[in-house]
Design a protein that fits this description.
Number of strands: 9
Number of helices: 11
Number of domains: 2
CATH architecture of the largest domain: Alpha-Beta Complex
Radius of gyration: 24 Å
Distance between the termini: 39 Å
């Protein structure tokens, strides 16, 4: 069975070749499995793409993609998914924290009949900020989308080909891959794996990237809009009752002094909520406009070991040649 391994690469010049070598060693020890790689360079600042080309020259089953600018981790994975040919597709990171030695655990769990398997870390070796954002993301995922109970997700996963076929039909440029998986199937399993220390450098996951990923939740749920309707109706009711109480109090006690502080507090609360909801609605409208204008999920500048029969005709993908035309 062919397993396609998709790895988004960013500033991983010193690690990506080792990741490939270790994965190949694991598959050499697995009966009934073979592998291919789709390595996607997300416009790194170092010589990551040169390292990818070296791996592609060493192994003919390594495909390399060089994106024209930085599109983000999930968009880079989406680019790689379009060029996979395996019966199973695996996603992992480029920094050896999602270690190749854990591959057999995920594949053996898939043999139980699951459509998706996530590797869940016994102990997370991220920094405090990444741990916090991950916990917050899991909380939001569990409450805003249809997520199977008891299932956790991570960047280390395996999915079946039909899941990949469904996911690549998504054409918005705002991508949250796990949410696309959740709306495809509920037959999802977890397997406990070891999370390794990062061997080189520090995490490239910044607050800005995390916030952008969080805002992509709006593409998968209408709950914020329903919350705006609920709180709008609630505040209107509170305002109406407060107005009636104030009028009655003023009629029964003409000496009542109007409160400046309470009025300003109410104004700040109500207007603050109104602007917040306008921002949420604006995000929805902005995403619709970006999708309608066919803003690309990714743009491929160059590639290696990929023939011309790939998925370049899809509206979500553009090559640099398409852009120049």
């Amino acid at each position: 069975m062919l397993v396609s391994i998709v790895i988004p690469c960013y500033n991983s010049e010193l690690t990506i070749e080792k990741v490939v070598d270790l994965c190949v060693e694991e598959f050499d020890r697995l009966d009934g499995y073979e592998c291919e790689f789709v390595l996607v360079n997300d416009h790194s600042r170092d010589k990551t793409y040169e390292a990818i080309c070296r791996a592609a020259a060493k192994y003919p089953f390594v495909k390399g993609i060089n994106l024209a600018r930085n599109f983000g981790q999930h968009n880079a994975i989406m680019a790689g998914l379009h060029y996979t040919e395996g019966d199973l597709i695996m996603g992992m990171d480029d920094d050896l924290q999602t270690h190749p030695s854990q591959i057999p655990l995920l594949l053996h769990k898939m043999e139980e009949g699951y459509d998706i398997v996530y590797g869940i870390f016994k102990q997370r070796k991220f920094n405090w900020f990444k741990n916090f954002t991950s916990k917050f993301s899991r909380f939001i995922t569990g409450h805003l989308v249809s997520k199977p109970k008891g299932v956790s997700d991570s960047n280390y996963w395996v999915v079946r080909k039909y899941v990949r076929d469904e996911v690549i039909q998504y054409n918005s440029n705002e991508i949250y891959l796990q949410l696309l998986f959740y709306r495809t199937t509920s037959n999802i399993g977890n397997v406990e794996i070891t999370h390794f220390e990062r061997e080189v450098g520090e995490s490239n996951y910044t607050f800005g990237k995390g916030f952008k990923l969080f805002m992509s939740f709006l593409n998968f749920t209408v709950l914020p809009l329903r919350a705006a309707t609920f709180f709008g109706a609630l505040f209107c009711m509170i305002g109406l009752i407060s107005g009636i109480v104030t009028i009655v109090h003023k009629l029964t006690d003409p000496t009542m002094v109007d409160g400046y502080a309470s009025i300003m507090t109410a104004i700040l609360i109500f207007f603050g909520f109104s602007f917040l909801m306008l921002g949420v609605i604006g995000e929805y409208l902005g995403n619709l406009i970006l999708t309608a204008t066919r803003t690309p999920q990714y743009v491929i500048r160059e590639s290696v070991n990929i023939d011309g029969a790939a998925e370049s005709d899809l509206p979500s993908a553009r090559s640099s040649e398409d852009e120049r035309q």
